[in-house]
Fold this protein.
Amino acid sequence: MFSDRPAKSEDPIPEATPEYILDEQVGYLLRLASQRHAAIFAERALLELSAMQFSTLIRLSDEGECSQNHLGRLVAMDVATIKGVVDRLKRKGLVTLRPDPGDKRRTLISLSQTAKDALPELSRMGREITRETLAPLSVAERKTFLELLKKLV
């Protein structure tokens, strides 16, 4: 039977290892990488955007007008979280909300003209943040790292 798992002798996390080495654990390392990225994002962010607000604007730009629930699914946020993010974006004048004419219980969200005008600069900012986050890696390592992260999510 074929398996994607490495052979026992190749497994980087052998079962027989008695100690738990924190510096070799995926969760710990991902958290450190995430903290580094968050610090870079906070330093470079335009319009006082959080990373969650930024990703919401970018997804909304890609998707176009959509319901708040659908937008939340697109950015992997629960209902309460996406509502808070959308409320803050509305206060900043970056999104517009309107009732769905086909279902008054739903709210449709779209980018405001201010957000549309800012998209080229926001996209540039996002690329710069990504470049700085991945700067310690070679070009080939960056590609591999992103491919591996996509497999995990």
